[in-house]
Design goal:
about 90 residues; DNA polymerase, domain 1; mainly alpha; single chain; globular
């Protein structure tokens, strides 16, 4: 695993709030082999900086994901949210 992915994995699993560690870490683990370099940069620049509350609200479709995200990353986030029943929260 390259250095950037290792850093991103750590940051995904260590957000501060355990529930968000599980959500973001689970998302990262599910798709890490499929991330493009563009998606890795988007996660690093637009997802990781979100507060835990905003991230949870994005996962549960209470607010929109940042506009800067590619459709392919939004699709992955949507798949993960649906698989874990988060869009029905």
């Amino acid at each position: 695993m390259n250095k950037k992915l290792k850093k991103l994995k750590f940051r995904s699993w260590h957000r501060g709030m355990r529930e968000m560690d599980i959500l973001m870490g689970g998302f990262f683990d599910m798709f890490q082999k499929d991330f493009s370099l563009k998606e890795i940069n988007e996660i690093e620049n637009f997802i990781i900086p979100l507060s835990d509350n905003d991230l949870y609200n994005c996962f549960t479709s209470k607010i929109n994901w940042p506009n800067n995200l590619s459709d392919s990353l939004k699709d992955k986030l949507e798949i993960y949210s649906n698989k874990n029943g988060l869009n029905n929260s």
